Amino acid sequence: xxxxxxxxxxxxxxxxxxxxxxxxxxxxxxxxxxxxxxxxxxxxxxxxxxxxxxxxxxxxxxxxxxxxxxxxxxxxxxxxxxxxxxxxxxxxxxxxxxxxxxxxxx
Length: 106
Fold this sequence. Notes:
Elements: H1 8-15, E1 16-18, E2 23-25, H2 38-49, H3 54-65, E3 71-72, H4 76-84, E4 93-94, H5 96-105
Parallel strand pairs: 3-4
Antiparallel strand pairs: 1-2
């Protein structure tokens, strides 16, 4: 797991996910930190020019850099942007609750 720590309402939304079947604290699974290098900033700037907010662009850059299987976010508008730009963005994004429910259906 790769992640970042959030504060306030963002922390409540992203680190503790509740559904009818599960409750997960995702920060306990974080096992890797990403070192940001100049080429990562360039990629984030490129993603920003495609319409992503700066921090979202940086997070996606990190996900791409580490070839993550899935980028989890509670930001549904970001998920839609990533899906729309799927030819330009290597990361796949899902809402964590949807991802958990799909995973438990298997």
